[in-house]
Amino acid sequence: MISIKKSLITLQNAQLYINQKLLLDKFSWEIKTQENWTIIGPNGAGKSLLAGLLTQRYNCPHIHFSLAPSQIQEVSFAVVQESLDYEAWNDDSEFLEGGVDKGRSVHEFICEDTYSLDAQVIEKFKLDNFLNTGIKFISNGEMRKAHILRALVRKPQILILDGIYEGLDQDSKKQITELIEELAQSCQIITCVQDSEQIPKNCTHLLCLDKCKIIAAGPRARVQQSREFERLFKSPPAIPSSLPSSYAAPKHIEKSSEIIQMKDLSVVYGDKTVINKLTWSVKAGDHWCISGPNGAGKTTLLSLISADNPQGYGKDFHLFGRKRGSGESIWDIKKRIGIVTTELQLEYHQNIFALDVVVSGFFDSIGLYREADASHLQIAQDWMQTLGIGDLAKISFENLSYGERRIVLLARAMVKSPNILILDEPCQGLDKRNRMALLNTVDFLATNTDMTILYVSHKPEVQVNFIKSHLEFIPEDNKPCSFSIRP
């Protein structure tokens, strides 16, 4: 007997306007039962916009659903951001003794008093301790896992996964793959990816996007053999040839002097030790890779260096030759450090132009709350041109793709000519072309400036030409990570 497919979602000449700007035009596509689609395209192609249409995050009159909204679930950067926004809005830390509001536990977030987690799932994925943790205190990989579990208990007919593996170590990818396989037994999967090697095994159909237009669509085998698919990622990446004319060298630090020093430094939250007796120093002009699995303590280490974590006070910890807590202000430190992190990108959802985001780097603010002078604007525009994103200047940051936001934040970090540039998983969310462009750009900056670069990755084998030194967080069973330091 031949199984007859039924239409679940139909877009017929659909148009999507956001802030009066037309982003999708005359867009036609149909999803039927028994089809697992992969939406593929470079950064800015429109993948996340399309995911937002399918989950009705954006309104569109020319789309028909044969499903209830609850039958379509999404795990994406946008959904994670929404859940963190909810926690921030309801945070009562300032009114509580001890100053810490745990917020919703992972279990409360997943079930919301209505749903329940099967005991077999809890045992299979070893969730016992994980479920009692506050949702806002879990790692990047754990957050993705929590959102997939949230989808699992709702028993969706369609699950949309947008950038689900970005920034995860191998163990986290394995756990999430197992969760998705559990879900795939009972629902259809729609995946958004940047590169052909990310296409999942269970994919039956491909939709290729470029500049918010369909380039090719249909059964996987047919589309992968098409010329359109081959051409999708062919354009060469942009590489800067010179620093902006407005570039000013960072505040002078004598070469090889120690700008970061810590001895037996520990960070403890309650009964959990996140960093245990780390002794480490960084000399001006040296470039380091900091690696380790998700949840190892890398982000905590960065928060110490960027002055966002008060646990550096009163310890044997020096920045720029001065002991932390000896009279310097947080802003004295921040003006000498540029930073690009996933956490910053999650926090930065102001509805302002990309140019204003870059200008805000001068003031270390999330948003722009003071008027920038002509020199600020010129430097910001120069860096955007240098990094190949000059055409994004007057586009709202919220309307940019995940990868485009990452490049904008790099420009934001560079405008103040920092002594230290922190790059936390800088290639997360970037397609192959933009990954190469970013790495070539950072290599160019390392070669042509006096900055010290801290490049953070969950991959210990990361290959970046300018990096010669390595701090690795090494997991220990039921213990805090140990450290391997190779200067």
TrEMBL record:
Coiled coil: none annotated. Residues 9-236, 260-485 form the ABC transporter domain. Keywords: ATP-binding, Nucleotide-binding, Transport. This is ATP-binding cassette domain-containing protein. GO terms for molecular function: ATP binding. InterPro entries: AAA+_ATPase, ABC_transporter-like_ATP-bd, Metal_Ion_Import_ABC, P-loop_NTPase.
